[in-house]
Amino acid sequence: MQSLKFYFLVSLLLICNPFATYAQDGNGRVQGVVYNQNGELLSDVNITVTDNGDSYGTATSDSGFFELELPAGTHSIELSYVGFETVKRTVTVYEGQVTKLSIILNSESQNLSEITVTGNPSLTQSAFANTKKLNYKIPGGVNITNLDKFNSQRSLTLKDALGAEPGVIIQEFFGSNDQPRLNIRGSGIQSNPQQRGVLLLQDGVRINQADGTYIIGLLEPQAADHIEVKRGSNALKYGSATLGGVVNMISKSGHNAEPLRLKLEGGSYNTYNGAVSTGHVFGNNDLYASLSYNQSDGFREWNSSDRLNATFNAGHKFSSDLESRLYFTFTDMAFDIPGPLNRQQMKSDATDINPGVNPPQSIGPNVVKDKPGRESRAFRIAQKTEYQINSNNSLQLSAHYQNLDDTFTYPITVGVKHSDSNGGGFDVRYSGMLGKHELNAGVFSSFGQTERRYFVNEGGQRGRQFADNSLWAANVGSYLNHRYAFTENFNSVATLQLVHSIRNNTDNLSNPDARPFYIAPKDQYGTFSAPAQSLDQSYWGFNPKIGFLYENESSFQLYGNVSRSFEPPTFDELINISGGNPNKSPEQFKAVELDAQEATTFEVGSRGSNNWFSWNISLYHSRVANELLTATELFGISGTTRNYPDRTIHQGLEAGLSFTLLRNLFTRSGDKITFDGSYTFSDFYFDEGAYEGNRIAGIPKHYINSAIEYSHPSGAFLNLNLEMVPTDTPTDHQNTLYQQSYALWGARIGIHSSNSINFFVEGNNLFDTTYASSYLIRDKVTDPPPQPLTPDEVTTFIPGSGRSLMAGFCYFIN
Fold first, then answer.
1. Average pLDDT across the chain, whole number
2. pTM for this one?
3. Using H for helix, E for strand and C for coil, what is the string for 82-105?
């Protein structure tokens, strides 16, 4: 990583050097691009604005670009050019914000439509307003998060981006580096570490491998313009049919990115982060590039991490109706795993790590000796082409390829797992309208080959190899979505998805009857027999959905739907490793047969906004069959996965609310106090069977995020925030051991504006609360040998970070 750090710094200097400081005095800004009806850029178009005797004017550049600084409010804008129709339109300018326009002028001889003004100048890359409009046509729970907030807050992790969103619970798992547990409606939360149940996308392109697993740290929020979260079956068009749905990071393009943006921040635990990006339009071409690097020593011992991410996309307009875009992403990340502690260890010193078996103080693992951690390097390339057939019909084609080199060093109980994966896929999507009918249809696919090898962990290094598997996964499916407008305000939506999934596992080890195992105290090897573990499995999913959406003229929406979900197991669940302990490597290796997890979900909800408040509320009830449960064994490292043979229930409430408490407290120009809050209620329990009536371990029943903020028209702000789990949460399915409730207070102060410089100072966990941010999930916490101990003395809890301080600034040119 040292050479990568050097390249990062050199690249940052090269990108920053050509740009000069640019000051901005206006209250708002309009930026736009002007085309003719053939998609050709027009230079020297006269643009004038006259309001109340004040006049503003400019002309488009050689690249068809123009820019105006205007007072906040509504203005009349006029565009004139010889040989073209002169047109007028109104444009609303918001204080401290940039309004983006894409304008088409028509030749006087053509007599076509007067002008088209839109906030989405790229066909392939959706702007925030366009994403919001499309998602609000979905009769179900969605989140749209604008990442402009990153200019004036910490921006290291996915939790920084989505931690306050309703229905999204992100639990720090390895001590505040970016490898958290992501929960949406309980899907995949049982995996350890959590790495399935949600489809992760970058610009609509899969990050998940074909078997459904993902490395969540490959998502880089700093490279995104905004994020869309489609909860549950609201993500069927992307090929996802899980309870969790989709998280899609949408990058900026050259049309809506700043020519230069630089973000630097640093703080507690030697944490540093730097990100630089640039966006440009060159005639019919645009490009966006970003580079980021962060590192931290971490809150605990053996807790360091670093990550380098480079993202690039470039688009070309062949005409106003046809655009193609190419994407490149490279990520290199590594982090240490400090492991779990028992309750007493956590209370005594939450920064500590386990030194091995020393009852009753510790039953392992031996983090000091085994040095667990993960190193992952991923390269992705993708292409997307959008053809606007006419005003009512469009076609999108996309394809992607991904290479992943991943080494996961577990404690000796499991060993070292190395995966070399190559995968890809393609998607075809059609959208059309005819009268009251809107049709969306498509096919999707993903394929992946992984060469996976398992080695003994011998003092933190690869020892002898005990498994060698070739893993092939494929998913091929189609979907059809029909929307019918009974009236202007009431729509019905019906969706069908059919998907076929393959999970083939071939055991290539030459001596499966003499697999090596290692006894660390004796420093000697033995052998165990596990015959060839080859097993091919396939799954079919038929996932219908029907729903309704009512919307009135005052931005009030009411919706409801019924849907089916489908989630086949991943290779991490289809291959079980067990039989080890903190002093010995595993002696069991087995391929297992599992069914796909399925569910029927009922959902109702509402969303809307006015000048004072906005809301986003969903209620859902899922009846789950064959739920995939992974339970960690006593020592907290290895585990086995099974289908629960009886019904389980996932139900809950996802509520977000924002409103203005007070306006014009000290000035007449718009200072205000606002409140933002989210509440996620997760009632997950066993409805039948051996655990009937027990809560499913892994998710807090109540999760609250709230913030109150004072903001001044100058951009100055003061934010006080609270993250709370108000009740204890079971860590095992028999509900014998609980994560204790906690409340974490934070504060942030700074300047947030559309001017050149934003800065902030942020404090988290201000009262230095000791708490478990996450925990290992078991069937039951048994009394460990060699002497009777209590469940509290079993290593279960992952300590959350203590008090921390972060400061940073963001400089950009509009």
1. 88
2. 0.85
3. CCECCEEEEEEECCCCEEEEEEEE
